[in-house]
Design goal:
Largest sheet: 10 strands, mixed
Radius of gyration: 21 Å
Helix content: 25-40%
Structural class: alpha+beta
Shape: globular
């Protein structure tokens, strides 16, 4: 299959593997298997990060994406048999109302459920539009015959069990990709596609390149193991935000100049801009005040390297997200150029 088809197949596979931050082994098992199938020798660190050298020599570069996603955890079992949840990662609670979810018990059982308002029926409670959405006004309704705390406990559900959200991945005829967890499984698919292009001889690396798939990015310590690596450059591939005064759209690759952790490396960021211009990519440079990436984690842990960030535009970030095939392909082209040519 061509690289675009492979990219989209990997995206659909990854989004459909539950991996809320803290429960990512199934996703990293898949990464290990796919990278091994491509002929590489990936490794998983004790923390769960997957690293994989895909070849090349000199001027070592690390390219990171994260496979952990937003999710929830059972906080308490309520007297009516429903569950109170606590967030994993940060999102607006109204973004998960009416969402289908899976409860993952520690014993390995999985239960279907739905996030609902505690006053869901208009016929019973009237208009509740103005009610703030939070973990007190919403609850997880388990799809079993349980209407008491004792009945839910009898299912084996306990506080601390993970809750994953239905990704609802859709690719439209117009090229838009709608799904939960495009942050950052879209970028993880980009990295896998780069690995496949190298493995099949269509990309020749101009430097030593290591792919890094982190697993705690959504809670702020995903790339902390990177500080131990001997690298000159760290390129984080994550989402580009869409909205407000930002220039980015879903069809573009976004280059981030500054986020909540401060400015990105001036020289490395400038190189990304120059590469995008030379390749005639559809790109934009933006600033994300409410954003942080794996680079901040690595730097705080002690990494001494240049660092930059790029990624496809993602609308409705940390909600039911949307990007576009062209944005992902623009991102792949930019990342590939960084791997192929030392500036």
């Amino acid at each position: 299959m061509d690289k675009q088809t492979y990219l989209l197949e990997q995206l659909k596979t990854l989004t459909n593997i539950p991996s809320p931050t803290g429960m990512t082994r199934e996703a990293t098992d898949y990464l290990l298997a796919e990278l091994t199938r491509l002929g590489f020798a990936p490794e998983r660190t004790p923390k769960g990060t997957v690293t994989c050298c895909i070849g090349g020599t000199g001027h070592p570069l690390a390219i990171s994406a994260h496979v952990d996603t937003l999710g929830a955890m059972v906080r308490a079992i309520k007297s009516n048999g429903c569950l109170r949840y606590t967030q994993l990662g940060g999102y607006n609670d109204n973004a998960i109302e009416n969402e289908n979810v899976i409860i993952h018990t520690r014993s390995g059982k999985r239960y279907s459920a739905t996030v609902q308002s505690t006053h869901a029926s208009r016929h019973v409670w009237g208009n509740q539009t103005a009610t703030p959405r939070n973990d007190e006004s919403m609850e997880v309704v388990v799809d079993e015959e349980t209407w008491s705390k004792e009945a839910t406990e009898a299912l084996g559900i306990r506080p601390g069990d993970f809750i994953s959200f239905d990704p609802r991945t859709v690719i439209t005829e117009s090229g838009f990709v709608k799904s939960r967890h495009l942050d950052d499984k879209a970028s993880s698919a980009v990295l896998l596609t780069l690995a496949r292009e190298v493995a099949e001889g269509r990309v020749t690396l101009g430097r030593k390149v290591t792919l890094i798939f982190t697993v705690y990015e959504e809670v702020g310590h995903g790339a902390s193991p990177v500080y131990k690596m001997d690298i000159e450059d760290l390129l984080a591939v994550d989402m580009g935000c869409v909205g407000d005064d930002l220039g980015c759209h879903e069809t573009q690759v976004s280059i981030c100049a500054k986020d909540s952790a401060g400015p990105y490396d001036y020289d490395f960021t400038t190189e990304l801009v120059e590469r995008a211009q030379r390749l005639k990519l559809d790109y934009v440079v933006d600033i994300y005040p409410g954003y942080s990436s794996d680079t901040a984690t690595a730097l705080k842990a002690g990494l001494d390297a240049r660092y930059a960030l790029c990624g496809q535009g993602v609308y409705a970030s940390h909600g039911y997200e949307r990007t576009h095939i062209r944005g992902m392909m623009n991102t792949l082209a930019l990342v590939t150029d960084v791997a192929e040519h030392v500036k």
